Amino acid sequence: MSASLRLGQRYAPALTGTFAVAALFLVWQAAVHWHWLAEGFVPSLQDIWRAVVHLVHTGELQSNLAATLISSAWGLAAGLLIGVPVGLLMATVPGFERIVAPVVRCTYALPKTTLIPLLVLWFGVGGATNVIVIAVTAALPLIVYSLRGAREVPRVLLWSARSLGTSRAGLLWRVVLPAALPQILTGTRVSLGFTLLVAISCEMIVSNQGIGKLIGQYGDQGSYDYLFAALFATTLVAYGLDTLLNASTRALLRWHETAQRHG
């Protein structure tokens, strides 16, 4: 295979994505220019860009975006600390799944924002309520993916470890967790998208800071250029985080496969 062909295959997805975004922007601008959509509700890209510049200049975008990312990070971290152990224990401890699975299934189907009124009564308006809702949202996919990953561990590995006298805790830490790592990382990526979505939803309802609060504020004011500016900035940051996590996952899995071969 020639070097140019390999280079083309390597960058083809990025180029395709770039062309798709450019086409979307062209259609957007054409729709505004020729009034295909309701006038006043869809601002031009120039107006959105001016709004972004103004929000950055005043610091309003950075401060609210930071608040959203901080609450999302705390919620995702709590979800990892809860979801991964619960999923692994469901797969390895007899009887534990029968106790926990009904709760997980019921909570999975529940819209998480419905917890907000109750949590506001308990913890008040602000960060704690948001983090708890985000943590519950993040934990559920991690439970499912950790359970799936633990169940896919080859039985021969478990039998070999037990025959060498490995304790239950050692089996979980040294065998099950490393073997389930690919599924856990996939669950983390799924949870990341959910955490940002729920964080913004919570901020629109009960928070006095964050991107969700900013979107709700400008929507109520009818300042749609600023609303879309906040949306575009959030989308760009979310895409960057997902890309970073995806690259980190690939690097970690390459290391994981190498360690498995030489371990």
Automatic annotation (TrEMBL):
Coiled coil: none annotated. One of its GO terms (biological process) is transmembrane transport. The keyword Transmembrane applies. Keywords: Cell membrane, Membrane, Transmembrane, Transmembrane helix, Transport. Residues 65-245 form the ABC transmembrane type-1 domain. It is found in: Cell membrane. Belongs to the binding-protein-dependent transport system permease family. This is Aliphatic sulfonates transport permease protein SsuC. It comes from Pandoraea fibrosis. The gene is ssuC_1.
